Amino acid sequence: MELSTPVTKLPLVGPTYARRLEKLGIEKLEDLLYHIPHRYLDYRIVSTIESVQIGETVTIQGNVDSIKNIYTKFGKKIQLAEISDVTGSMQSVWFNQPYLVKNIRKGERYSFSGKAELFDRKMSLMSPEYENIENNQNTVHTARLVPIYPETARLSSKWIRGKIAAVFNTLINEIKEYLPDEILTKSNFPTISESLKYVHYPNELEEAERGRERLAFDELLFYQLKSLYRKNDWQKIKSIYSLKVDKKILEEFKKGLSFTLTVSQERSIQEILTDINKDYPMNRLLEGDVGSGKTIVAAAGSFAAFINGFQSVFMAPTQILAQQHFNTLKNIFDLYKVRVSLVTSEGIKADLGKSDIFVGTHALIHKKLDFDNVALVVIDEQHRFGVEQRAHLVKKTGKGRRSPHILTMTATPIPRTVSLTVYGDLDLSTLDELPEGRKPITTWLVPPEKREGAYGWIREQIQSKKIQAFIICPLIEESQIETMKQIKAATVEYEKLKKVFRPFNVGLLHGRQSAKLKNEVLDAFKKGKVDILVSTPVVEVGIDVANATIMIIEAAERFGLAQLHQLRGRIGRGEKKSYCLLFTESKSQNVQSRLNALKENKSGFELAELDLKLRGPGEMFGTKQHGFPELRIAHWSDTRLIQKARNAAKEAIENPQNFPKLIKKIEPHDIAPN
């Protein structure tokens, strides 16, 4: 067996188990070794039967004198085993696992680990882990710190432990160290083989943590290295066109705007104009809160392309957002006779003659368009597109090994440590302030008992102030899953709210509607024909209705703070005072403190940092964040380790002769673009 051997070569691992393992990212035996536990059960206390105390978690080792199924009058099955050692006997109890009477053989020696409690007035081990030790073999599932692994449906931790145990001793010597001794010594890291031994077979929890930290460092190091390799490779590409902008023309463009640019907008525009004058293409990420004015910054780049005689392309993830960009750019460039085209799955909307700016959805990739001299490609909410879609658009607008300048934008606030790791190959511009005139939004946390009062207040506001409201629900249809049943579903709420808010007009918007129906609903809302729009989080991107001043967010605890902030950013865009009402039925103190943070009107970046600390790595952006990477071992909140990995990655890139084994392991030619 080798590290590269497929898991299907293991005994009893056929196609069905292989598919389950694939869901956990396990295809080769090496992947199995790198499947790291997320916690441990402490079964280290091995006790004689006479020493066991009620309430203790212990391991006892003895002979199985009997095991049988007992049937209750309610039809449940209880499994009872009588276990004895030289000091006495006790029973072990399981529930509804009738197969155990065949698995556990009478007369043989077993190790049992679990909690001792009273059952039927007798001291018993309740639902213990067990394994046969008839031949005095080392224990895997009992009598030690037992690792609990990430699982998937019908693939238990016990099964995974067994498979790791089957290959560990054979393969651990195959894993060779690739970090220089200097880094290991400086950081007090164990070797890679020691780290894997520590996480799978620790003697102490501190030992397990040492192993996990080393493996987490490696995971972050590989991320950083890949980013730096991508950056180096990108800078070897030639830009199709270098663009120069006369300062006087740029100042006139700014004066023609109906508003004053913020300091961070001015700074970001200058960074972009510097980039597009280089002989290798720009590759920049523009981050900014909802409403911070990213589109005008991108428009300045398009203006630079236009006055140099070249085209620009804007790609947005939804038709709603593409339409919004189209309208904004048409308004901005109306003075300059710039021809802007809208390209969606429904067709192409264009002025006569050649287009200067193409705005559209992924239809830009598939439709035949006149991309003969594109200098700038802008990709909005880039994490919502796949790597291949982005690469396809760049390839379509480029010429061989020459590429247009690339500006990607996101309104998703990403903590700095995360963006430096995930998007380390991109130069970063940040809009960290809102334009003048944006009024702060008053945010309230609404418990269940105040729901009816809130509805009454909304009715009164719509009636007296002629405003409109959003009601956001996390799901489209009511869930059948037990744990999800309490979560508000848009379609069900829509029917309910039509009655609650009669005679006002209530509309429904969600991602499964056709593009035509979505546009009709949005158009009616924008024109004031719909008073209340019940929607899924599809509204978080690109809907701008100045008269919408109230937003209710149902089951607010289901969303990350960054996503709640983005949703809230859809209101507060006009002159009237705006309010966001967070409805939650959760009594959790953690939930309450998280949601209360929104009341302080922190920036999206502050909220993202806070959520990172409170909720951990996979939860920053709410129920699901498309395209955002999950770490398997490390944590995004571990800024110290991220910085340490970043420093090591830079050193490896600058002095590859000192890192030959690491460089060979990373295989730069296999790195996919961001």
Tell me what you see in this structure.
The strands form 5 sheets. Strands 12-11-13-10-14-16-9-17 form an 8-stranded mixed beta sheet, sandwiched between helices. Strands 18-23-22-19-21-20 form a 6-stranded parallel beta sheet, with helices on both faces. The protein folds into 3 domains: 45-143, OB fold (Dihydrolipoamide Acetyltransferase, E2P) (Beta Barrel), CATH 2.40.50.140; 204-439 and 622-674, 3-Layer(aba) Sandwich (Rossmann fold), CATH 3.40.50.300; 442-600, Rossmann fold (3-Layer(aba) Sandwich), CATH 3.40.50. Helix 6 packs across helix 7, helix 9 (263-275) runs parallel beside helix 10 (294-307) and helix 10 crosses helix 11. The radius of gyration is 30 Å and the shape is globular. The protein is α/β, with parallel strands linked by helices and 674 residues long. The model is unreliable at 479-487 and 617-627 (pLDDT under 50).
What is the element layout, followed by pairings?
Elements: H1 15-23, H2 29-33, E1 39-42, E2 57-71, E3 77-85, E4 88-95, H3 100-103, E5 109-119, E6 122-132, E7 145-148, H4 157-171, H5 181-187, H6 192-200, H7 205-234, E8 238-239, H8 247-255, H9 263-275, E9 283-288, H10 294-307, E10 311-315, H11 319-333, E11 340-344, E12 347-349, E13 357-360, H12 363-366, E14 374-380, H13 387-397, E15 402-403, E16 405-410, H14 416-422, E17 427-431, E18 442-446, H15 451-465, E19 468-472, H16 490-500, E20 506-509, H17 515-526, E21 532-535, E22 548-553, H18 561-568, E23 579-583, H19 589-599, H20 604-615, H21 639-654, H22 660-666
Parallel strand pairs: 4-6, 8-15, 9-16, 9-17, 10-13, 10-14, 11-13, 14-16, 18-23, 19-21, 19-22, 20-21, 22-23
Antiparallel strand pairs: 1-7, 2-3, 2-5, 3-4, 5-6, 11-12
Domain Helicase C-terminal: 465-613
EC number: 5.6.2.4
Family: Belongs to the helicase family. RecG subfamily.
